[in-house]
């Protein structure tokens, strides 16, 4: 398992070995020992797993969870291709406002760890792109928040030549500045405290 620290503080990329033969392939995108070595603690207990299937051009996000309670995520692409976007929304973070784009696909099984308070979005680059999420907390609509992905202040590196398909919720989400003004962004120290308790 290869591990890379992303430019967003606390976010990690995991690239497992893929074993291929004439039957197909086998891989393990989450490995406890590799995660613990990289993060300094074991993976969080998984409270919920979710999948999303998207057509080409779909943009999902930027999503995050009210903190507290906060949610950590472990994300990978099971089929198709996606450009995954990791955005630091934690006020007071040394990397606040930074975005890192990571290509994910069903062939390489690369996975990303998103700490509590970090925003997540992705762009589906192929029809039938299947994303998998492991989460430290169950989905609770009252805690789910979003920032508008097309906000110029975020400057997300959306690929050229795609017509972005967004949900009404994501189109109507506040900009980063509006979320900040309304006190909707998570606080870095609070996120770190929650993270350490997982």
Shape: globular
Unreliable stretches (pLDDT < 50, length at least 5) are: none
| Total count of strands | 13
The helix tally amounts to 4
Secondary-structure element string: EEEEHEEEEEEEEEHHH
What is the overall pLDDT average?
97
Which second-level CATH architecture applies? Sandwich
- Which percent range describes the beta-strand content? 35-45%
Q: Order of strands side by side in the largest beta sheet?
A: 1-2-10-7-12-5
Structure description:
InterPro entries: RmlC-like (IPR000888), RmlC-like_jellyroll (IPR014710), RmlC_Cupin_sf (IPR011051). The record marks 139 as: Participates in a stacking interaction with the thymidine ring of dTDP-4-oxo-6-deoxyglucose. GO terms for molecular function: dTDP-4-dehydrorhamnose 3,5-epimerase activity. Belongs to the dTDP-4-dehydrorhamnose 3,5-epimerase family. The protein is mainly beta and 198 residues long. It has a single domain (2-197), classed as Sandwich (Jelly Rolls). The protein contains 4 helices and 13 strands. The radius of gyration is 16 Å and the shape is globular. The mean pLDDT is 97.
Quick rundown:
With 198 residues, the chain is mainly beta. It has helices at 32-39, 168-171, 176-181, 188-197, and strands at 2-5, 12-15, 18-21, 24-27, 48-54, 59-65, 73-79, 81-88, 99-105, 111-114, 118-124, 129-135, 144-146.
């Amino acid at each position: 398992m290869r591990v890379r620290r992303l430019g967003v503080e606390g976010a990690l990329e995991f690239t497992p070995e893929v074993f291929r033969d004439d039957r197909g392939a086998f891989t393990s995108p989450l490995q406890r020992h590799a995660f613990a070595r990289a993060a300094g603690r074991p993976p969080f207990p998984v409270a919920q797993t979710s999948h999303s299937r998207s057509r080409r051009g779909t943009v999902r996000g930027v999503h995050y969870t009210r903190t507290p309670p906060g949610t950590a995520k472990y994300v990978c692409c099971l089929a198709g291709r996606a450009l995954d976007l990791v955005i630091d929304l934690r006020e007071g973070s040394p990397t606040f406002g930074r975005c890192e784009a990571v290509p994910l696909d069903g062939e390489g099984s690369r996975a990303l760890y998103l700490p509590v308070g970090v925003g997540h979005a992705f762009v589906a680059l192929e029809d039938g792109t299947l994303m998998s999420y492991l989460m430290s907390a169950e989905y609770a609509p009252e805690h789910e928040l979003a920032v508008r992905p097309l906000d110029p202040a975020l400057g997300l590196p959306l690929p050229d030549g795609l017509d972005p398909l967004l949900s009404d919720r994501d189109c109507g989400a506040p900009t980063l500045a509006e979320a900040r003004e309304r006190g909707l962004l998570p606080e870095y120290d609070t996120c770190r405290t929650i993270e350490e308790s997982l």
